[in-house]
Specification:
This protein is an all-alpha fold and about 600 residues long. It has two domains: about 5-300 and about 385-460 and about 465-575, Sodium/glucose cotransporter (Up-down Bundle); about 340-375, no CATH class. Helices cover about 70% and strands about 0% of the residues. α1 packs across α8 and α7 (about 115-145) runs parallel beside α21 (about 495-515). The longest helix has about 50 residues, at about 150-200. The protein is globular, with a radius of gyration of 24 Å.
């Protein structure tokens, strides 16, 4: 059987399972659509949270980022995992006690203001749409290689599949589909990692293999990796970072952005009681850890395998000829995600860091620039091929990559849909809408969101994990402070909350757009990706933490200058702090 046929078999079978589950778990009420009926078991919910959490950025891009940047990019790992703990400890149980369907509904009721609810909807949509772009882009990467179609066709296929199970099943269908997707993606991620760890270190557990001895050289694996890449002009894989402030702020942005992500928060509304929300958080952490403990090993081993593919006799020897490039390079070249340019016309592949510091060495070797451009998002997906693993493993990781992208995309689309149908249409435009009409509006809204996400996913402003990082920054600056103040401060009023969210969102968006060069103004475009021009060297991806500080400061300042919240709101805040005995989630 050809590799293409194996890929189609694995991907097709997984899609059939997802759609079959959606038909079985079709949502018949708004409660089914928004919170899966409120009766999901904590273990089931924990597994669904794991799938919802581990997006294309986690499955596809995170290891690629760590592989490219080493220790410097471990911030993704620390920020996302630390943020989940923050969410589980500080927000989830209290929001579950409140017993509403959506994050904007909590903010609107807590701050007794329709304006606060509307601003929260705007923040949610901006963050979720930005996030879903990364998921659709990741799906396009996976489809373009494994189903041998162009990325646009891949996006359309992904959109059709999500439409079939998300629009039909709502949260109920998505929950049980995500359980299946978690099983697929975790098996797909760990099996190739085990194979590769055994090949390189004779250690079956990848996380332990990372700190084991490289079998061929007898050196510690990370020392071998440092030796190989520094010989090609790259920075030490384990090197420390110079800008500690930016690293801390970026990690903090990912942490509090994670805790403010609405598509993860709403998963805690699907369990019967507060204790189940806590157990869901614990189980989800276990399921998430299985992938996150493996990712650094996958990244390191992929980087070493990549270099060894190009320089089979060592980095100081001649690289392979282009005509003798391995099949995995040929396969990924078709997608455009690997590009080769023979700059010195010697027919060989020069892979190195063409920086000024390495220029004399490169010139002495007759090299005229790095000739191989490898998209970071492909490393995990290409890992089985790089290591010459069996065809079924390649098919499995194809299904896993798509499961990771689609599971999170579905959760995000549901968050967008529920905020529009429940918070805007029912909450403001037509409060007397029937349940059937609200359910129809939710499905129509999700359909529109899928179309928009597919269109934007075709031209994302960056690779998957970078786009996702921007979404985390937006959530960090807008939603997280409002949720924290809503739970833990009785003094913050409606005026403070609205002003804080607006200030946090606007300041973060302006900083991101200016310093990523997305404004069509020549002077601002010249600032793009130039750290010397950034405020205190703070990256646009790290500014969410600053935006959150602005949000807190404005909210407390405006609240202090205006009247206190009504006494019943203060009593509500007090009751939410003690999350015991919560009943079912309600829509009123």
């Amino acid at each position: 059987m050809s590799q293409f046929a194996i890929n189609v078999l694995f991907v097709g079978a997984s899609f059939a399972i997802y759609i079959g589950i959606a038909i079985w778990a079709k949502a018949g009420t708004t409660k089914d659509f928004y919170v899966a009926g409120g009766g999901v078991h904590p273990v089931t919910n924990g597994m669904a949270i794991g799938a919802d959490w581990m997006s294309a950025a986690s499955f596809i891009s995170m290891a690629g980022l760590i592989a490219a940047g080493g220790y410097a990019n471990s911030t993704f790992l620390m920020g996302w995992t630390g943020g989940y703990v923050l969410l589980a400890m500080l927000l989830a149980p209290y929001l579950r006690k409140f017993g509403k369907f959506t994050v904007p509904e909590f903010i609107g009721d807590r701050f007794y203001s329709k304006n606060a609810r509307f601003v929260a909807v705007a923040c949610l949509i901006v963050a979720s749409v930005t996030y879903v772009i990364g998921q659709m882009a990741g799906a396009g990467v996976a489809f373009s290689r494994f189903l041998e179609v162009d990325s646009t066709t891949g996006l359309i296929i992904a959109a059709v599949v999500v439409f079939c199970y998300a629009v039909m099943g709502g949260m109920k269908g998505i929950t049980y589909t995500q359980v299946a997707q978690y099983i697929v993606l975790i098996i797909a991620y760990t099996i190739p990692a085990v194979f590769i760890s055994l090949q390189l270190t004779d250690t079956a557990i990848p996380a332990m293999g990372l700190f084991s001895t490289h079998t061929e050289s007898g050196l510690p694996l990370l020392s071998k990796l440092d030796e190989v890449i520094t010989a090609l002009g790259f920075q030490d894989y384990t090197a420390d970072v110079d800008n500690k402030l930016n690293m801390v702020l970026f990690t903090l942005t990912l942490m509090i952005g994670t805790a403010g992500l609405p598509h993860v928060i709403i998963r805690f509304f699907t369990v019967p009681k507060v204790a189940d929300a806590r157990w869901s958080a614990g189980w989800a952490l276990v399921f998430i850890a299985l992938l996150y403990l493996t990712a650094p090993a996958v990244a390191s081993m992929a980087r070493l395998n990549l270099v060894n593919t190009i320089y089979p006799d060592g980095p100081t020897s001649q690289p392979i000829e282009y005509s003798e490039r391995p099949d995995w390079v040929k396969n990924w070249e078709v997608t455009g995600l690997i590009k080769y340019e023979d700059k010195n016309e010697d027919g060989r592949i020069q892979l190195y860091n063409d920086s000024e510091s390495f220029a004399p060495t490169a010139q002495a070797r007759g090299w005229k620039g790095n000739e191989l451009d490898v998209n970071r998002d492909i490393l995990v997906l290409a890992n089985p091929e790089i290591a010459n693993l069996p065809g079924w493993v390649i098919g499995l990781i194809a299904a896993g990559g798509l499961a990771a992208a689609l599971s999170t995309a579905a959760g995000l689309l549901l968050a967008i849909s529920s905020s529009v149908s429940h918070d805007l249409i029912k909450g403001a435009i037509n409060p007397n809408i029937s349940e059937k009409g609200e359910l129809r509006a939710a499905r129509i809204t999700m359909s529109v969101a899928i179309v928009v996400a597919t269109y934007l996913g075709a031209n994302p402003p960056g690779f998957a994990a970078q786009v996702v990082a921007l979404a985390f920054g937006i959530a960090a600056a807008s939603l997280f402070p409002a949720l924290m103040m809503g739970i833990f401060s009785k003094r913050v009023n409606n005026k403070g909350a609205v002003a804080g969210m607006a200030a946090g969102l606007i300041s973060t968006l302006v900083y991101i757009f200016v310093f990523l060069g997305w404004f069509f103004i020549p002077d601002t475009n010249n600032l793009a990706n130039t750290p010397d021009n950034w405020f205190l060297g703070i990256s646009p991806l790290s500014f969410g933490a600053i935006g959150a500080m602005i949000n807190f400061a404005v909210a407390f300042g405006v609240s202090a200058a205006t009247e206190e919240p009504p006494i019943e709101i203060q009593e509500l805040v007090e009751s939410v702090r003690y999350p015991r005995g919560a009943g079912q989630a309600t829509d009123h």
